[in-house]
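In response to the reviewer comment on reproducibility (Comment 2.3), we provide here a single inverse folding case reported in full, input and output, so that an independent group could reproduce the run without further information from us. The structure tokens appear first.
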């Protein structure tokens, strides 16, 4: 993708570049400065895209951009509505493999776009409902010569930027599209293609600005940062479909890496409310399921902690003497002035407590490791 862009710079149409820059500035400045002012008086934003399309058609017809400046235009728009027909079932053995791959990719696109806008507008998505929707529409559309059903990144962004909030917009957009196909097609044939490209690029501006989230991803999770980077770069330098497949495989690989090298934290009693853990006790938290792939790491970490302790002061768990937990300590809330000096020791000597709250499951080797420890 980037390679094709670089190679085509020398053959770029200067007139098309000027029109594109002007169109992008018109839409971006309009949304930045005009829309906020209009919202004070009207809840309906001005149709900047429609205005740009009308201006583009007028300029194309007036200046004859296609013939004089070799500007690519929409040209012929097919008119009429195709008649439904039963799919040719004899092609199923030849298309089943590619069909499964296309179905998975289309569903992933739908879910990724749905989660993207759900996060932005703070609502929830139902994966099962989306699965049914894609399946039903795929079955219905199989009787017509159409593309596979899926999410359109550019069209979804255009609808979102236009103020669409519910699925009712599909009724209006479909009605408008049908009107264009049956009636208004000839009027849009002179429209320069670069005008349509401007609308798509400006609509994707919010997606491009997600690069600002990278510092936050780096602070929260290095794995999420790497997944975002791989998905972005593979999509830019290769293709959307290949980028999606590579990013999914890479995300699954990070899950394996997280399972094999989980986060292992050792917390001293000073960092824990003293009425919960007695003095001289270390709390270890293994933030992963304990299974055959990371059981060696689990044992090694505990062995290292034991080895780092003072052998003279450390007492093994069998030598530890447990005492009853005072009721006033077990039931009373934490007090700011509570210190180790006024809390009775519940355990003499030193010991290690393994916090298993983050272990979703433990296999047989993990159970043997816990017994060994």
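Designed residues, in position order:
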């Amino acid at each position: 993708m980037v390679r094709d862009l670089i190679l085509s710079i020398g053959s770029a149409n200067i007139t098309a570049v000027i029109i594109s820059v002007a169109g992008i500035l018109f839409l971006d400045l309009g949304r930045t400065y005009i829309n906020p002012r209009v919202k004070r008086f009207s809840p309906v934003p001005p149709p900047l895209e429609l205005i740009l399309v009308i201006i583009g058609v007028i300029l194309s017809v007036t200046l004859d951009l296609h013939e004089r400046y070799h500007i690519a235009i929409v040209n012929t728009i097919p008119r009429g509505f195709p008649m439904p027909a039963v799919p040719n079932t004899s092609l199923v053995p030849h298309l089943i493999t590619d069909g499964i791959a296309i179905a998975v990719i289309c569903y992933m696109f739908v879910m990724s776009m749905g989660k993207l806008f759900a996060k932005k507008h703070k609502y929830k998505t139902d994966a099962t409902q989306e699965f049914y929707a894609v399946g039903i529409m795929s079955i219905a559309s199989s009787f017509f010569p159409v593309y596979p059903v899926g999410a359109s990144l550019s069209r979804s962004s255009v609808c979102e930027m236009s103020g669409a909030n519910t699925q009712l917009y599909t009724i209006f957009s479909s009605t408008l599209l049908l009107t264009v196909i049956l009636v208004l097609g000839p009027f849009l044939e002179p429209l320069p293609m670069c005008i349509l490209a401007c609308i798509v690029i400006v609509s994707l501006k919010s997606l491009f600005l997600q690069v600002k989230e990278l510092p936050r991803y780096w602070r929260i999770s290095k794995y999420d940062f790497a997944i975002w980077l791989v998905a972005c770069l593979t999509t830019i330098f290769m293709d959307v479909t290949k980028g999606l497949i590579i990013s999914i495989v890479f995300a699954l690989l990070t899950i394996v890496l997280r399972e094999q090298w989980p986060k292992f934290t050792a917390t001293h009693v000073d960092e824990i409310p003293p009425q919960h853990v007695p003095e001289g006790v270390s709390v270890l938290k293994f933030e992963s399921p304990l299974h055959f792939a990371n059981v060696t790491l689990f044992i090694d970490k505990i062995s290292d902690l034991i080895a780092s302790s003072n052998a003279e002061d450390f007492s093994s768990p069998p030598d530890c003497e447990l005492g009853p937990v005072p009721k006033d300590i077990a039931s009373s809330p934490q007090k700011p002035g509570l210190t180790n000096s006024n809390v009775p020791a519940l355990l003499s000597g030193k010991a290690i407590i393994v916090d298993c709250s983050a272990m979703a499951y433990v296999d047989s080797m993990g159970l043997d490791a816990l017994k060994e420890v």
